Amino acid sequence: MEPALAKMGLARTARLALAINQKDGFDCMSCAWPDPGHRNVLEFCENGMKATTWEATPITVPRSFWAEHPISSLADKGEYWLGQQGRLTEPVHKPAGADHYEPISWNDAFRLIAERLNALDSPGRAAFYTSGRTSNEAAFLYQLFVRAFGTNNLPDCSNMCHESTGTALTATIGIGKSTVAYDDFAKADLVIVMGQNPGTNHPRMLTALEETKRNGGRVVAVNVLPEAGLIRYKNPQKVRGILGKGTEIADRFLQIRAGGDMALLQAVSRRVLAAEDAAPGTVLDHDFLAEHTVGLDALRSHLAGLDEGAVLAATGLASHEIDDLAGEYLAADRVIITWAMGLTQQKKAVATIREIVNLLLLRGNIGKPGAGASPIRGHSNVQGDRTMGIWERMPERFLSALEQEFRFPVPRRHGADALQTVHGLRDGEIDVFIAMGGNFVGAISDTAVAEAAMRGAKLTVQVSTKLNRSHVVTGEEALILPTLGRTEIDLQEGHPQFVSVEDSVCAVHASHGALPPVAPGLLSEIAIVCRLASATLGDRHEIPWGEFEADYDLIRDRISRVVPGFESFNADVRRKDGFVLPNGPRDERRFDTPAGKAIITVNELEHLERPPGRLILQTLRSHDQFNTTIYSLNDRYRGIKKGRDVVFVNPDDLAELGLHDGQRVDVVSEWPGQPDRVLPDQRIVAYPTARGCAAAYYPEANVLVPLESAAEESNTPVSKAVIVRLEVGHVRSPRS
Ligand SMILES: Nc1nc2c(c(=O)[nH]1)N[C@H]1C(S)=C(S)[C@@H](COP(=O)(O)OP(=O)(O)OC[C@H]3O[C@@H](n4cnc5c(=O)[nH]c(N)nc54)[C@H](O)[C@@H]3O)O[C@H]1N2
Ligand SMILES: Nc1nc2c(c(=O)[nH]1)N[C@H]1C(S)=C(S)[C@@H](COP(=O)(O)OP(=O)(O)OC[C@H]3O[C@@H](n4cnc5c(=O)[nH]c(N)nc54)[C@H](O)[C@@H]3O)O[C@H]1N2
Ligand SMILES: [Mo]
Predict the structure, then answer these.
(1) Mean pLDDT, to the nearest integer, of 601-622?
(2) CA 688, 689, 690, 692 torsion: positive or negative?
(3) What is the distance in A from the centroid of ligand 1 to the CA of 34?
(4) I need a surface site. Which of 214, 380, 422, 687 has the fewest CB within 10 A?
(5) Distance 714 CA to ligand 3 centre (A)
(6) pTM given for the model
C-alpha cells in the first residue's frame, strides 16, 4: 500500500482498496485471474494495488505540458518517465508537419478522424487495435463500428499473447478457453504450472494453489527459471501467511530449456502409453477416449518412434525427471495444466499446447471436477474482448448474428492481426491506425521496424488513460483521446453506469467505478466509440449510437441477441456473483469440432538448436511493471534494484563465454539474412536460469525480436526464444 498512500493519500487509497474486486466494486485490471465466491475484505494483491494506484493517481498532465514538450523530445523519454506524467485529461491533436500536440475540442477531434476515415480508398486501409482492458460493452460497440465501417482489421494484444492457445484449443476441443472453474483448483490432485510466473503476474493464483495443497494435491512447476512465489510463498491476506515461513508451493520443479515443453509433453504421454501397455486396461480412460475423442492410434504409433535423445537435448532434463513427472501424472486422478507466455510465445507454441491437450485427454482430464486445460489469461478483459468480437477472424456464426441484429452487410474477409498490421503500415497498405488502449509500438516485436512503420501512417489515434511510447511515435497527423479508467464513476445523463468483464475461467461480472473522475470532461471508452461512430458513419446505418452512450443496458440487450451465453445478460450480470458462460468441454464433455469429438493430434517434434557461442533469450516481466508500464526500476523477487538494463545468464554459460557477473555487454540478436539487432549496454547478472538460456526485460528487449520471428499457425511474436550473442560493449545506440 506504500505507493498508494504516497501518491493518493489515505482517503482515496481506502476508498479504492475497499472497492477492488468486491461484488459492488470494480474489477482489478492487473490480470484476468478470477475472484473466488468466498471473497476477503481486501481481495487484491500487491501488483493489483500498483495497477490501480497507477490509474487512480490524482496527478494529471497539465495543459502547458503540450506547449513545453515537442514530440521529438518526448520520443527521447522512456516508458517510466512518460507514465509518471499523470493522467491525460483533454484531447490533443498533432497537425501534419507539427512537432507539438495542441488541445482540440472533442467535436473537432471526432469530425477530423471521421473525415480522414471516410477519405480512404477502402475501409481496409485503416486498422483498429484493442488492448485487453476494454470492457465487454465498449469492445462490442467498437467491433460493431469497425465492421459497419467495413473492415475486419481488428488486431489486438491477444495476437501477441494467448493467440497460440486459442488456435490450439479451438481446433482440438472446440473452444479457445479454459475448461476449469475456480473451484477446480481446490479439487485437483495435481496442478502442472508451465511457462508461467504467477508470483508476479497472477499473485492471487497462489492462493488457489495453496488450496490445492491443503486438500492433499500436488503442484509441479515447469519453467526455465526458478520463479519466486512458486518456490516459496507467503499469503499476505492471512496472519499466518504474513508471520509464517511461507508455503513451498511447488512440490517439484523441472527446470526446462527454452522451447523444450513440446518434447517434455510428448515424452510424458509416451510414458503414459507405456504404462498402459504394461498393465492393459488400467491406465487410460478407455470409456472417455472411445466416446469423446479421435486420433489415439495415430498418437500411439507416432510416440512409439519418439527419439529420447532428442527429448533430452530439447528439454535439458534428465530422463528420471521426466519419469518422475509421468509418475505424478499417473498417480493423480484429477489433473489441471496451466500455462502462459513461456509456452505461447514460442515458434512451436500451437503444437506444444496441442500436446497439453493430448496428455490431458489420455486419462480423461477434461470435463471432470478438478481437471482441465487452463490457460491463464493476461489483461483483465482480454478474453471478454474476444467473446465480444474483437478478432480479425471472427467465425461466421458471430458475423451472421451481428448482421441479423444490425442489418448491414458485415464484411467476411479476414482482417489484419498485430504483425500483419505492422507489415501493412510498413508496406503502405494501411494509412490510419486507431488504438483502443494499449501501447502498440511498445508492445509489438522489432521496435525499430515497428516504429518506422508507425511513423509512415497518415493518421494515428490513441484512446488512453496515460502517456506511453505510442503517443510519441506517431503518424503524420495524430490524436490522443483521454478516457475514464475502470476505477472511476461513469455517469451518463446523471445515471451511474457499470460495465462488465470476463475472467480466465469464463465468469462474467459487473465492474462499478468507485472514485470521481480525475478531471471533468473525460469521456468513457463507450462514449468515445459512439461519438466516433456517429461522426464517421452518419446516417449510413441505423445503429442508435446516442442511445447506447446514454444507457449501457441497451448495449447489453443487443449483446444478448448476438453472443451465445449472454441471453439474459442484464439480469445475470446484476447477480452478486455474475454468471459463468457455457463451456462445452467443461460442462458436458461436448467438443464442438468438425468430428464432434476432441481431437488427439500428432505433432512433429522440433526444437530450437542453439548455435555455438549463442544463447536463447527470453523477454519477460519484472515484478514492478505491467506490460509496457513500468512502476519502478526494481525486480524484488529476482534481487534486481534500480535498473532494468540487465541480462540474466547462467554462471556456467558465463564461464564458457569468458564473461562475468556485472560486466556490461551489448545483446545482439541474429536473424538469417538480416543485419544484427542490438540492445546496447546491459549489465550481466549471473542467475540460475537453465543452461544456454538468457533473459531480459520486455518491452526494452523488443528491439531484439525480429518481426519475422512468429509462432507457426498463430502468428504470435516469438518473444521467448531469440538467438543472441553477448558482445563486450562497443556498439552504442541512442534509444533510451
Ligand atoms: N504484475 C503484472 N501482472 C501481469 C502482467 C504484468 O506485466 N505485470 N501482464 C499480464 C499479461 S498481459 C500477461 S499475458 C500475463 C503474463 O504472465 P507470464 O506468462 O507469467 O509472464 P512472463 O513474465 O512473460 O513470464 C513467462 C514465464 O515463462 C517462463 N518461460 C520462458 N520460456 C519458457 C519455456 O520455454 N518453457 C517454460 N516452461 N517456461 C518458460 C519464464 O521463465 C517466466 O516464468 O501476466 C498478466 N499479469
Ligand atoms: N518482447 C515481448 N513483447 C511482448 C510480450 C512479452 O512477453 N515479450 N508480451 C505481450 C503481451 S502478453 C501483451 S498482452 C502485449 C501488451 O500490449 P498492450 O496491451 O498494447 O500494452 P500495455 O502495456 O498493457 O498498454 C498500456 C497502456 O494502456 C493504456 N490504458 C491503461 N488502462 C486503460 C484503459 O482503461 N483504457 C484505455 N483506453 N487505455 C488504457 C495506458 O495508456 C497504458 O500506457 O505485449 C506483448 N509484447
Ligand atoms: Mo498478455
Answers:
(1) 95
(2) negative
(3) 17
(4) 214
(5) 14
(6) 0.96
